[in-house]
Specification:
One of its GO terms (molecular function) is DNA-binding transcription factor activity. This is IclR family transcriptional regulator. The structure is a single chain. The protein is α+β, with helices and mostly antiparallel strands. It folds into 2 domains: 62 residues, Winged helix-like DNA-binding domain superfamily/Winged helix DNA-binding domain (Arc Repressor Mutant, subunit A, Orthogonal Bundle), CATH 1.10.10; 160 residues, Beta-Lactamase. The chain contains 8 helices and 9 strands. A hairpin with a 7-residue loop joins strand 7 and strand 8. Helix 1 crosses helix 4, helix 2 crosses helix 3 and helix 5 crosses helix 7.
């Protein structure tokens, strides 16, 4: 299982990774990691360049044509890695009408956590993953969204006004991140990043954290992980 986790993690990344990074993300001791990486390189499933590892030519024997991979298959390994690293709920959202629909979710193992299941839908304006999707829309589609959508205010911080939402979307396009913060201590905060791949539907990845654990340190760690997407 660890060997498969390593292969899936390295393949999902867009740049070479160091052994320590893989070990941290997957929760594998370095003593075991060194042996597994050495074996994978010997079999050409990975290649090593200095301290960094990339997918190797041996994977071509197993390769599924990229066009046949669903978004769920493509990103599930990376979601698991982020969940392992932070132990917070990580979800992949896709656009479904004017809602964000959960494509994949990896739930935190902590008793106080954000719970959402694949297939569930949420209004785009009400969560970070949804605002990341809005930021990915072309301007004509965004204009249509504001004409057609009904935006309910769920908390005092929910943005429903078009001018305020457009300012937020502009910030997401500039920084690459969307954020949603709840006012109550029992609420949920989330950080998300838009994902736009050639020939694929737009999507976003979101990390959701109870307010009591959403510290500056955790926020910085979540941003660092999402920058790889």
């Amino acid at each position: 299982m660890r060997t498969l986790d390593i292969i899936e993690f390295v393949v999902a990344r867009t740049e070479p990774v160091q052994a320590q990074e893989v070990a941290n993300a997957l929760g594998i001791p370095m003593s075991s990691m060194s042996y597994l990486l050495s074996t994978l390189c010997d079999r050409n499933y990975l290649v090593r360049d200095g301290r960094r590892y990339s997918p190797g030519p041996g994977l071509l024997r197993l390769r599924t044509p990229e066009a046949s991979l669903s978004l769920e298959d493509r990103f599930a390994p990376m979601l698991r890695a982020v969940r392992t690293e932070l132990n917070e709920t990580v979800s992949l959202f896709g656009l479904d009408g004017w809602d964000a629909r959960v494509l994949v979710t990896e739930a935190s193992g902590q008793s106080l956590r954000y719970a959402i299941d694949p297939g569930e839908r949420r209004p785009l304006h009400a969560l970070a993953g949804g605002k990341a999707l809005l930021a990915s829309l072309p301007d004509d589609e965004l204009a249509r969204y504001f004409r057609e959508s009904v935006r309910e205010r769920f908390t005092g911080r929910t943005l429903v006004d078009e001018e305020e939402l457009r300012a937020e979307i502009a910030m997401v396009r500039s920084t690459g991140f969307a954020e949603a913060r709840e006012e109550s201590q029992s609420g949920i905060c989330s950080l998300a990043r838009p994902i736009v791949l050639p020939g694929q539907p737009i999507c976003s990845v979101s990390i959701a954290v109870p307010s009591v654990r959403y510290t500056d340190q955790l926020r910085a760690s979540a941003k660092a992980l999402l920058r790889h997407w």
